[in-house]
Amino acid sequence: MATEKDMEQTETTVDEIGAPLIAQDGKSKEDNFMVYISTFVAVCGSFAFGSCAGYSSPTQSAIREDLNLSLAEYSLFGSILTFGAMIGAVASGPMADFFGRKGALRISTAFCTAGWLAIYFAQGPLPLDIGRLATGFGMGVFSYVVPVFIAEIAPKSLRGALTAANQLMICAGVSVAFIIGTVLTWRILALTGLIPCAVLLVGLFFVPESPRWLAKIGKHKEFEAALRKLRGKDADVSEEAYEIQDYIETLQKLPKAKLFDLFQRRYLRSVTIGVGLMVCQQFGGINGICFYTSSIFESAGFPADIGTIIYAILQVIITALNALFVDKAGRKPLLLVSGAGLVIGCLLTAISFYLKTYEIGLEAAPALAVTGILLYIASFSAGMGAVPWIIMSEIFPINIKGAAGSLATLTNWFGAWLISFTFNFLLSWSSYGTFLVYAAINLAGILFIIVMVPETKGRTLEQIQAAINA
User: Left if phi > 0, otherwise alpha if psi is -120 to 50, otherwise beta: which for 207?
Assistant: First the structure.
């Protein structure tokens, strides 16, 4: 077992190795074309994720009418997606470690493809639910593998922005499903879900595997070839290759991590940060508010269709801006600003429902509700939506990345299910009290970020991991 002194020496070595890398950035003729292409291919999985998530909302009445489904049967169809995603989350880490990042993407794409076809051909509730469960499994795998793959191939100067493209494409997939779902039949809408899957499957033949995964399994020639392909034929990759291999060799001297090993002292901080950020992201109420946006606007007396359109547009725009600024502003400042906005948004919405409940200043209630919800989604999109996935993809050492990533992703999906399941119960208990609870959770999230979360901007993965786990 490595001592603290050994880990400090590892951190020092990594920092010393990192220094010439920074100095050489201006000298080497680095070409990031393949990085951009690889990222585009990977985020087709994110778009497929969004297509799955956005499918049930615009199709509810048509599916129920065509297949004669009860409300309970359709509710099962809608919610079983999350259970599939939780299964996918558990499987995602081991799959990515065993089959590689590209292999895991292929498998999840196959599940999504099979799921969409099952939905398209469904003549009753059973094939419909099986298809939805399969697409959910694919979503669960995508949610872990896509940001990890991007983080492992991107240079440190682009890593935040490219990883944030994951969240942007999820939002885009949801928004496109909402929009085209109003004009297409539910069966044709299911077929459109095959488009990002097809692009991803074809694209994977033309992009390299993650160099860090190749180094981890001992394929040194393939590792160097992949790194050179990603950095450009004229780039000097010797320093980066040495840094990656040296760090992986250090980690492989440690025993292979199992689930309970994640709670050992050497890994405890990174696991706490990764899982804690997923708790902050989900338990602050995002899925309840997202799934029931229309009913919230209606309850507050604001036109639901106008509010939902503004909500969808704002989400995509702010997420795109987040991708542009995450490598300049840093991860931690964006999380803190985002958390503050979430608290204020929840408080404004709580005040709106309080005024309506006690019939005080009723003319102000709709404006407060709309302002609160839109501020909430803008704030979430500015940081809490994308940044936890970025940091999760950066902080876990490669020898625990599979197990730790699965745990963090499972926590995220469990939180998504729990919040969406309990949201209506909480609203029936107290409409304004619900948002006060979410405000308190988001405030606790700010304190967690201040105390626990490091800034990872502008550092290699090896530097980040050595510093956290020292």
Answer: beta
pLDDT mean across residues, the chain: 86
- Give CA–CA dist 365/377, Å, rounded: 18
Only one residue has tokens 């997939």, namely: 173
Q: How far apart are CA 399 and CA 248, in angstroms?
A: 8
Per-residue pLDDT tens over the stretch 80-101: 888 999 999 999 999 999 999 9
Classify residue 412 as exposed, middle or buried by CB count within 10 Å of its CB (0-12, 13-18, 19+). Answer: buried
Structure tokens at 252: 């492989």
Enumerate the H helices of 154-193 as residue ranges.
159-180, 186-192
CA distance to 26, 224, 245, 360, 369, per residue, from 217 (Å) = 31, 13, 11, 65, 53
Distance CA 436, CA 418 (A): 18
Enumerate residues 6+ apart whose C-beta is below 8 A from 194. Answer: 113, 116, 117
- Look at residues 13, 335, 24 and name the one whose alpha carbon lies nearest to residue 156: 24
Q: Which residues of 179-198 are buried (b: 16+ CB within 10 A; e: fewer)?
A: eebeebebeebbebbbebbe
What pLDDT, in 10s, does the model give residues 436-462? 999 999 999 999 999 999 998 888 888
Q: pTM for this structure?
A: 0.80
Residue type, 435: F
Instruction: Kindly report the number of other CB atoms within 10 A of residue 325's CB atom.
Output: 16
For the record, the structure tokens of 264 come out as 């050992």
Burial of 19 (0-12, 13-18, 19+ CB in 10 A): exposed
DSSP of 91-124: HHHHHHHHHHHHHHHHHHHHHHHHHHHHHHH--S
